[in-house]
TrEMBL record:
Coiled coil: none
Protein name: Glycosidase
A biological process term (GO) from this entry: carbohydrate metabolic process
Cofactor needs: Ca(2+)
Lineage: Bacteria, Pseudomonadati, Spirochaetota, Spirochaetia, Spirochaetales
Residue span(s) of domain Glycosyl hydrolase family 13 catalytic: 71-488
Alphabetical UniProt keywords: Glycosidase, Hydrolase, Metal-binding, Signal
Pfam families per record: Alpha-amylase (PF00128), Glucodextran_C (PF09985)
Amino acid sequence: MKPFYYSMVALLTTTIAAMVIGCSSVPEPGALRAEREPREPVVPITPVSDDEIQDWLQVPSPEWRDQIIYFIMTDRFDDGNPANSNQGYGEFDPRYNSHFSGGDLQGILDNLDYIKGMGATAIWITPPVANQWWDPKVEYGGYHGYWAENFKEVDKHFGTLEDYQRLSATLHRNDMYLIQDIVTNHTGNFFTFTGPRSTTDFSRNFERNLRSVPVNAPTQEPFHMNDYTNAEHREADIYHWTGPITNYQNERQIRTFQLSDLDDLNTSNPVVREALRDSYNFWIEKVGVDAFRIDTVKYVEFDFWHDFHHNTADEVPGILPFARSLGKDNFMTFGEAWYQSRPYDDTADREIAAYLGSEDKPKLPSVLNFPLHVDIKDVFGSGRPTDQLTFRFDSMYRHYPDPTLLFNFIDNHDMNRFLHSSSYEEMQQALLFMFTIPGIPIVYYGTEQEFDVTRRAMFADGFDSGGVDHFNPEARGYRYLQELADLRSTNPVFSRGTIEVVKDAPYGAGVLAYTMQWEDEYALVIMNTGRRTLLMDNIPLELEPGQVLERVYQVNGEYPQELVVEHGSVVHQYAAPGSSAVYLITDRTDSFPERAGSITIENLQQGQLFEFDGEISGSSSGVDNLRMIINHNTDRAIPVEQQQDGSWTAMFPAETLNNGRHYITLAGEGSDATVYSASYLVEVDLEYVLVTEYDDPVGDAHGPEGRYLYPTDDSFGNDMDIDVVEVWRAGPNLKLGLRMADPINTSWNPINGFDHVAFYIYIDVPDDDTGARAMPFQNAEVPSGMEWNYMAMLGGWMSFIYHAEGSGPEAYGTPASPAPAITVDHDSQTIYVELTAESLGEPADLSGTRIYVSTWDYDGLESANRQLRPEPGQYIFGGGDGRVDPLIMDDTGIIVVP
């Protein structure tokens, strides 16, 4: 996991969730839960008897490309045994995200019918090992499993070794598989360093975490040797005696310093290496685990991974030879190497692929596909250009030996859920995409029930459940995933094939068409990621004329039952907003109409640059109703006047578009079919002009009455103080420059280039009468004299935009797109935010637009603004009551665009 997880949730997050579930739905801590009515099985699971458990622990490895993985956070899934929920240390309280909720291994076992019925063939569970239950230093608990105190014991909250064995055996008996999440980088937070730290001696100011519960040091040898003041412990060198990472650009710190104060293991020490191999061989032998997902691999020395996987020592071999000795010849591990990934940049792919090693010195068998995840969120959730995916697939084939063995996902336990800022229809497309491309799909628990809070509990008594169970097999998301699982499992082309994007949209949301090929199987997937009906013209395919493709699946729109290849392409006239279709090749052929007539564009070149409106011209023959279609958008086709000789002239409206690449196509009606010109891809580059500046007082970032205090952690400074807001225009596009009073914070290595501040930008667009005044989740309203139509919400890890429709004090509104683009100029301390005309509803004129900017901070894993309390905490604001006081650290007045 990258620092975001530990910083925002597991360790650095000290927030206690503001959403408190009513007493009627959540018992007081320690109360016994009522007996639950048994649920009807979705797909009956064959149980195993006590005598059969050992017989079903060790089974041969599966073909991993055929698996569909369901990822479960054990504590939040289901409570099968309420007796183990509360261990009596104050660590259990399902009212709060920071505490244990009660989910356990028995709860997973009780719901295997539900999981299998959805189409999943394997489960991945968060670490079940004995954990630090509560860290008083950060007021957060280890319910998630990543703060180990003993790598070879089952945590008492989750059950017993026998419970785990029964789960594994039952999975195997029912042709399913078990993936265990593991950690090799660190234990829990049992020691720390206080006060100033020397740059050369990080042993100074050593302090043990003596109030940690249930133990204040690991109980497993040799990890118990963690007291630097003890000479024997110090010389054993089990840990890196270092402080927390402060510079994520420093390689030594990344590999050997403490990730968010979690005690960093000295994984160069042979004793530590052997102990970790032994610890995880234990689970393969005793439980029959089929695969490991490995946490935080980027924080461990590179050389460790070859030893961990491939060591051939007789006594304690690496996990792969040990698994082979038990008949698991294809034991899988996939690592979490969470590197920053930017659009059209393969840096992250290169860095992540390095963890696979080489043929001479292999390391991990596979990795989580974080770069593709970012593009999935961008394209399907934020309306970004679909050609980002074209670039990413090209990069995958360059850098990974076999993309079909990468592990794909749309969200997980360390980030906002996909539905936090996107619609259900957008999630449908993202999931269909994931199920029809190379790579093994992972579905995070609750996706099928449309969860939008990262760690909401599935069971009625758990955190943020609303007092109801969420195991509904009739939910539309559940049924949709059943259909996708069936589509993938019955067509090996999707798990084995090679992908080629044959049409994309470089201008933004829109056309995406790709093929998958494997042996004699061939599939075509067509999507419209945009919010308007689009023309799907001339999709190029390397097939013979007359070959027939048959539709096998569609969603959110009506597509032809068959497509016939014409001259190297197929034409599908229209695609509804957010619609998708899947076609498979048949062995049939059919005739197709020859399109009478022609249209040519004569004064345009591919890639031609437009810095303002420009005239284009050409000729036509045998067509009428000539029109210019920009970016496949037939709703705004521009009529084109034809002369008697067929010549025509039209004005390309570059000044109404956003900067970037755009398609131009001419269409007309022939005698028996629509005729299209060739499509031209051109570049629009409008000059941004600074139209106004707003000077904000410096030093006023302390809340509406000047009484708020920043969190006490050293990583916070005066990060939320706005100095100047610059307003730039380029045609209908808007750019804001947010110049900050102090240097921009990057303490948690944020992907967007700034941290410890979130911006809430409210925009009142002329001629939009759907405005609102309430600032969602900020206990405030926009200043008198404006109503907002759009709200951009920006942070180090997020970029969202919402329309005011459906908004309120506790509702963001309707997700809009594309999301703002963010760039950072650290030298000038300025964060630039670009909002395209499409983002703002394509206003006719930006003049008179009103803008209001406020700052606070956002906690991604709580899916909420950072808390405000009377007294500040390590990661909590002080000086107010966040339930009623405005969550505003700094703000501007109303800024009017001239």
